[in-house]
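Readers of this paper often ask what the protein records in our data store actually look like. Below, we set out a record of this kind in full and without editing:
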Amino acid sequence: MTIEEIARIVEGEILCGNKDLNIERAVATDLMSDVLAFAEPNVLLITGLHSPQAVRTAMVVGIPAVLFVRKRDIPETIVNFAKECNITVLATNLSMFETCGRLYMNGLKPVRRAIE
């Protein structure tokens, strides 16, 4: 599923990056230590942590896109940092629960490895 399709499904907006990027799996968490522990490269990171740390963690793990949920104002500093890191950023007003449900129902799969 493309970033553009993801944005449509979650009634969100693409703040920067590649709208044609193809994503097959996702991980959802506000704990960046969980991302470091079990996320895979080339997945979508869904988070409510509106900080540069989410983008930095995505970069370290090889995650090409971050979807911020519970959108408040996403600081321009985060968007600019994501541009520097070549990370696509989306935002939605939906909760994490509803965002994940909508994406799962439309075919987005979870990461292969679960928390042990």
